[in-house]
Input
Amino acid sequence: MMVRLRFRLNHEDVEIHVRDPASTLLDVLRDDLGLTGTKSGCAIGYCGACTVIVDGEAVPACLRMVGLLEGREVRTIEDLGGPEGLDPVQAAFVKCAGLQCGFCTPGHVMALRALLDEEPEPDDERIRRTVDGNYCRCTGYVKILDAAREAVALQKAVAVRNSRAGAATSPEGRRR
Amino acid sequence: MTADLNRGKEPMTAGFRGKAPTPVDVTREVPTPTRELPVTGLPSGRVLPPPIGSAVERIDAAEKVSGEAVYAGDVRLPRMLHGAVLRSPHASARVVRIDTSRAERLPGVHAVITGADTARIRWGAFRPDLYPLAIGRVRYVGDEVAAVAATDAETARRAAELISVEYEVLPAVLGLDEALAEGAPLVHDDAPGNVAHEFAFDRGGADEWFARSDVIVEGVWQSARQWHGSIETIGCTAEWSRDRVTLWVNTQTPFLARQRYATALGLPTRSVRVIQTEVGGGFGGKSGDDNTSVICAILARRAGRPVQLLNTREEEFLASRPRTPMRCRVRLGFTSDGLVTAKDLDLIADNGAYTGKSQAVLGAATVRHDALFAYRAVRARSRLVYTNLVPTGAFRGFGNPSADWAVGQAWDLAAARLGIEMPDLLLLNAVEEGGVSLHNHRIGSCELKQCIRKAATAIGWYEKRSNPTPHRGFAMGVSVHVSGRRSFGDYDGSSAIVRLTEDGRAVVITGEGEIGTGARTTLAQIAAAELGLAVADVTVTRPDTDLTTHALGALASRVTYVAGNAVKRAAAQACERLLAAASRQLGRPASELRVEDGLVHAPPALGEDVPVRLPVGVVVRAELYRPNGEPVVGLGSFDNPSEFPDGVRYGNESGAYNFAAEAAEVEVDPATGAVTVLELAAVVDCGTVLNPPLAEGQVEGAIAQGIGMALTERFDWAGGAPTRPNFVDYKLPTSQIMPRLHVEFADSYEPTGPFGAKGVGEIALDPVASIVASAVADAVGVRVHELPITAEKIFWGIRSATDRRDGDRR
Output
């Protein structure tokens, strides 16, 4: 018996058929939908490597049962960046050398993306608390924190540029 | 880059890193050369060519931030199955019977294997003692017993649980004392007394020098298993084509792994091809001493389909190869004015159930730190002891963080006894350029004293020490590391091919790989600098044992130094050949030509006033597109100018040594014993800093791992295994516990290094545990003797000191 599920994934409607609705979103993304940008680090919701955004909230995909996602809005690392360039958060990680092995990076990027969507100009305490939620074994976090602060600045610059250009689209515009 | 490839041989000066020279506050004499060193540096007085020393963005950054990089678990092959492993629940047992029939009947299962399906060959880097799957015996909780390949990982795991194994549980040795006890059960029948490896030496006459010492300090310090905790676990995908298997592995050392996996599979080396995937953190843990890839290959063979096998996080904790715990009895002698005389070290290391690299770790831990100081005599007895615990092995620092923690504690005791401030004591004894240790470490460039002075300044040592704050403490420590170490046979070399392309780029073909440090980026910088190309126009291959040059890979802080030299030479030869081709094409002598920004430049021809500019790609294409045309390719090779240490670890391990001095300020909550590391200053001598943010990243990350080793990383154990083997119990440092860091690099230039560079990957981890422990002792008078330094240990230490004081009063 396969169970049919429909939800929004990276701004597209998807319909999947799973044998077990208790399968995790992480396994479904990686194995059924081929979106391997979301990483598995511990499978118990501790390390943050599998962070995705569900209805605007950063959550570990390894703890989300896919059966509970019906009608929800899911965003993964594959949603960011594109032909027009990197997302400001991604660009900040590149600029600040905020990554080494890169395995935890998609999780960090998504956690910060969710933060900046909710609060475009977070104070340093919120930035620190967000970064504190995700493990990184390589960097000692110094350059991840640099990247997080830089992301705020880059996003602001994009917003200013967009408003100057009189574009109707907000930074979120291209994501519809 | 000029066409003149005859580099000058003048000695390098400080302040050579493309910025305003910093006055070097170390007065040192001109070093006496101890031997002829190959010179690869640039003539004195020239700034380093771009992009050496600049903050070039990582060449792999965009694919990593976008989730496009393909790690071990991201490999997808047609018809690929997924594997799972059944592991021993017992620390020591005889395998009486295995019944796989229920697992085989589960729908979706394609192969079930046990030891009977393997070549029954024991393998291992130094002491072959590990079967791919258990043959008759299991020796630790996590030992591999059977494995399954199925259509998905969940089915494979369920099938593995359906395998029924009858065990006869045997007595186990679950610690060093149990293992060394008279009549202890043997982990391996061929290792009497459970000793896997041992050696001893007395260089310089320790007893005589202790007799002449005014102050002697002594103590025992014990370190613990520390797991690499790479966020990506170990994983492999295997596919057979007739009698040949291709393994896509997240290994740090593809060529060494290929050799070992072939042995384990009972195949000739030529039958195994290893391709490196993206590696999600290595730190020594992915250097090919575990069974995952071997089992994956056997499963794929049996299933007749590709198989992917990934460790779960629990398996990573149960059955990877964590840091070798060491118990060190250290004795140091000093003259009353603070000159060190002798050192005596009795080192017992916990091998766990199988040997892996711990044998080499033991050697490094025993001798390396002696390169720091001018000891008159050093005696050591080192033993590697089997236990029925998870096997140990290589972890960043390779024995030195454990040994440095113990020896560093003894030095800290000595400073207190001598009444000399630690920076002063270190400066009094620190090695300098030209020094030769009792083990024949021949020290080339060495700015250890500069590191000590700068670290003391950065932490505000003298001001803060003279105005102490309650419950706060300070400490300083130093360490030395290699830039490549001769240990896998008498070779620590690297070779590279640089191919200039018809579209004006360079492809650097090297088998060294990338584990996250940015090695491919710095190698691209070296090639770009040598060739006069932009880094964006340089591609660096990933290791593939069929396609790239042979390489030992990412270990022993070797890639920048060893591979960097090979790439530099290959690029120089490619550049020379490019200019020879351009010379023929333009009818101009090569000495008039140079490459810059991807163009071959020549002065105006006679009677012309416009300089000639020819794109590199045009020259390459013209060289090819002619009768008997040839590609423009350079080959470069470099072998570390080092010696293969003998059985008692005498020999110059490396051609270049890197150094660090680190100082910490901690605060201890006297009510709970909780430690906060407030500030940590690290000053590293890694020669020329090729790419500052990448080098800083190595130092920052190493310090974080050192803080984890010192304070947070531990398990509760029961029955020979961690009770909850996941991150819930095993706390990696998060951003909130990181101290304020001051990271600096000494002005330094290594004449044998590429553009003056040395290794930097491990050094900054080595002193951390020791300085945190010493700072805690300075803060509250409690010296912890067993890692990690938990609040509980400090609390009881404070309490018993209080009790003693109260007792005295009564």
About this structure: Chain B has three domains: 72-170+232-280+286-319, 326-487+644-803, 493-639. The radius of gyration of chain B is 28 Å. Chain B touches chain A through 57 residues (CB under 8 Å).
